[in-house]
Amino acid sequence: MGLRIGYAPGAFDLFHIGHLNILKHARSQCDFLVAGVVSDEMLEQAKGRRPVVPLAERMEIVASIGYVDKVYAETVPDKLQVWEELRFNVFFKGDDWKGTPQGDRLEAAFRAVGVDVVFFPYTVQTSSSSLRTALELINRSPEPGQRLHGVRL
Predict the structure, then answer these.
(1) For residues 71 and 110, what is the distance between their CA atoms, to the nearest angstrom?
(2) Count of beta carbons in the 10 Å neighbourhood of residue 37
(3) 23-35 burial string, b = 16+ CB within 10 Å, else e?
(4) Residue 151 has what pLDDT?
(5) Residue 122: which H helix or E strand, with range?
(6) What does 11-31 look like in DSSP terms, one character per residue?
(7) Radius of gyration for the chain, computed over Cα atoms and rounded to the nearest angstrom
(8) Model-level pTM greater than 0.90?
(9) What is the pLDDT of residue 153?
(10) What is the enclosing helix (H) or strand (E) of 130?
(11) How far is Cα 33 from Cα 59, in angstroms, rounded to an integer?
(12) What is the DSSP code (8-state) at residue 97?
């Protein structure tokens, strides 16, 4: 069949066990793994907010993970454009996309160019969104009289 080149894109902001699991599982199903780290601008466009950790730092963190063979800065919204540059033949995504209109479009587009799409279980107990919310709560100035960690201020 030839070399199985995998591509696993993500924000990888506030790196946590869910990110590690995706990269670990992806690497177990390919010969060479490229981790696509979505740029700050693309994240702001897609999610309406900038990441906590800047792109260069997120790329360095992901590059340090032993499962990753190459890190790629993803600066375009179209995954087929990324494929045209990298020519991977398997695409990895969290299963929170499986069966959604967006996920179905992605699968169809990649099927047309011979790329397999593999969905991995999403780690629900830990997410960047929940970590971001916790950080915002920690950094928020409490109102007078508000309870914070059981202490009245």
Answers:
(1) 21
(2) 29
(3) bbebbeebeebbb
(4) 45
(5) none
(6) --TT--HHHHHHHHHHHTT-S
(7) 18
(8) no
(9) 44
(10) helix 128-139
(11) 14
(12) S
